[in-house]
Design brief:
Layout lengths: L22 E4 L6 E7 L6 H9 L11 E7 L15 H13 L9 E4 L2 E2 L17 E8 L2 E8 L7 E10 L1 E4 L9 E4 L2 E10 L3 E5 L10 E10 L7 E7 L3
Parallel strand pairs: 2-3
Antiparallel strand pairs: 1-6, 2-4, 4-5, 6-7, 7-12, 8-11, 8-13, 9-10, 13-14
């Protein structure tokens, strides 16, 4: 698969120096805005939505109030182009939101802000910051060990689920087949790896699974939490991971 990229970094979680100090991310009590785009390199309608998401790179509240994610799905691969970022679990994640919002089907581009649909006609707008206080989320990463604590504003009635996504920036693709044949695509905020863990105490200790990342110019970590019986995100935090 042809790829145009000057920087090739072959990264596992050895990407953090063995001597690196712990990195800490922390939200306030006010709900952060988790912006999730479900997209595919095989979908001719997706490039405008990806361009919209890419613009958050320059937003002054990136990693403060806004936490964008691009989940590439595989259900358009049959059109003739296999999306190299797509994972089957991304489709399951989108299906959970479709069920939550009583949508009869899933589609791309599909965008959700804190679990609610953000329609294509709104792509010229930035979602307004929530005024709701949902609780604070603190995350610490040292080497490949991650710890997190969520302090909800209101008591929950079921366990909490922590989601951790490793996000790739500066990715590029030259698409040679399918609906976008001949198009060059720039990808930001691509979910390269995701894992989840349930906790009744709203505290977590986990190891980030080793995964090889290629061609990314920068990595970020986005972490969010929801109630086990409801996939709607309650709080999110994260930011760039220093590469050494």
């Amino acid at each position: 698969m042809p790829v145009t990229q000057n920087i090739l970094l072959y990264l596992g979680f050895a990407l953090l120096s063995t001597h690196a100090a712990a990195i800490e991310f922390k939200s306030g009590p006010q709900q952060s805005m988790l912006i999730e785009l479900f997209t595919s390199q095989g979908c001719s309608s997706c490039p405008p939505a990806e361009a919209y998401l890419n613009r958050f790179q320059a937003h002054p509240l990136l990693w403060k109030s806004y936490f964008p994610l691009a989940f590439h799905v595989d259900y358009w691969d049959y059109l003739g182009w296999k999306d190299r970022f797509a994972k089957p679990q991304h489709r399951l994640h989108q299906e959970a939101y479709a069920s939550l919002n009583h949508q009869g089907s899933i589609y791309t581009p599909g965008m959700f802000v804190n679990g609610s649909p953000w329609r294509q006609g709104m792509f010229e707008r930035v979602p307004p910051i929530s005024q709701e206080e949902t609780g604070s989320l603190r995350v610490s990463l040292e080497k490949d060990r991650l710890s997190a604590e969520f302090r909800p504003a209101k008591p929950g009635n079921s366990p909490w689920v922590l989601h951790v996504a490793v996000v790739g920036m500066g990715l590029k693709s030259d698409i040679a087949a399918g609906e976008n044949s001949g198009r060059h695509s720039d990808h930001e905020f691509v979910v390269l790896h995701q894992q989840s863990q349930v906790s009744r105490e709203a505290t977590w200790q986990l190891s980030l699974e080793r995964t090889e990342f290629k061609e990314t110019s920068r990595l970020a970590l986005v972490v969010w939490v929801n109630n086990e019986n409801n996939p709607r995100p309650l709080q999110a935090t994260g930011g760039y991971i220093a590469l050494e």
